[in-house]
Sequence to fold (403 residues):
Amino acid sequence: MENKGLSSPVNQAKKSKISLYYGTAVICAVLVFASGWAFGSGKVSLDGVRRGTVSTTSNLDFTGVKEVDALLRQNFDGTIDDQKVQDGMKSGVAKAAGDPYTEFFNAEDSKAFAEELNGSFEGIGAELGKEESNIVIISPIAGSPAEKAGLQPRDILVQIDGESASDITISEAVKRIRGKAGTEVKLTLARDGQKVEVTIVRAQISVPSVKWEIKNGIGILTISRFSEDTENLATQAATEFKQAAVTGVVLDMRNNPGGLLESAVKVSSLWLDNGKTVLLEKQGGKVIKTYKASGTPILKGIKTSVLINDGSASASEITAGALRDNGVATLIGTTSYGKGSVQQILELISGGTLKVTIARWFTPNNKNIDKEGIAPDKEVKITAEDIKNKLDPQLDAALGSLK
Fold:
C-alpha cells in the first residue's frame, strides 16, 4: 500500500494528526503512503506533524561515523554528495529501531508522502508494506493500473525492473516503482510459491476516499482510505441513506490500507453514541489516550454489515473493531491485515521528516490486532474464478445478511 490525509508536512508544523495507514507506501505510483500510498503501505497511523527543539539522553559515540566519513572522502574514487551523506545517516538511525513503520523521509520523500495522503499522484496505485525482509503488496487501489494488472494483497515483490527488491525499505521500493505517467515499470512477484511478472504503465492517479450508492433499499458505503475528505463525504452519504430510509448499510473497507486516525474515529461516530469508545492508545502497556465517538450518530440503529479482507489495515481495522466491539455491525469477508501501531510524523529542524511508531492501539474490548488481524464474524472468500467472472460473493453475502 495511503489517501489522503496528511497535508504537506512543511505546512502542517502546527497541526497534529494521527494517520493509520497500514504501511507506508503506496507505490506511487502511488507511493504507498511512502510510507505512503503507499496507501502502499501503512498509512500509517500517524500522530501528526510536529516540530520543536531536540533534547536527548543518548550516549552514542559518533567518532566512528566521523572516521568513516573522513576515510571515505580521502580514499573514494568519485564524488561525495554531502546531502546524501546526511540523509543516509538519518535513515540509518531510523532503520536501527528495527520497526518497519519507523523511517526517515528526505525533502523529496516527504513531499511525495504528503501528496499520496491527499490522494493524487503519479504511479501504479498500490500500497506497499514490509514483512521481515520482504516488500509486500498490501492492496491495489480500486481502478488503478496496479489493480488492472492483477496485483493482489500479500504478493511479495521480488524484483523491480530486473533489480532485486530484497531487504530494501518501503521508501526505496516506492522510489524505484513510481515515475512519470505513461512510463512502464516491470515487477516480478512471488504469489503462492509461483513467479508472476507484470509490466504496468504508470498513470496520474486521483482517488476520492469515499463513494456510495443505494441498491434495493440498502446503502453501500465504500471507503478506500481515511483522509481529510473522508469525514465529510461519509457524513454526506450517511445523510442520504437516512433520508432514503435505507433498511441496511454495507460499509465496504476491503483493500483499505488506512489513513488518518481522526477520520476513522469520525466515521465510527456515524454509528456510535457520543462517549462510546472507538479505540485505546497504549504506550508501554499503559493506556495514554482513549478515543471516543462524537457528533451525530446518523446511522444509529440501522443494521450494518462491514466488509474486510487481508488488504484492510490500520484505520480500517480500527473502524471495523470499534463497530463490532460496540455491537452495531457484523463483519464479513476474510481476516484483516493486522497493523496495530500508531505513527507520528515529526518535521526535522535539520531537514526532512521522521515517521516514528509512538504507540499501539487496541479495540474497545482491549484487543491489539498487530500481526493477527481481525477475523470476520462470517468468513466469505473470493476465488480467482470469481474475479475472472466478475463475481463478488462477499458483497452478495453482506447484502443478503441485511434483507
About this structure: Residues 382 and 393 are 6 Å apart (CA to CA). Residues 82-95 form the longest helix (14 residues). The radius of gyration is 21 Å. The chain is about 25% helix and 30% strand.
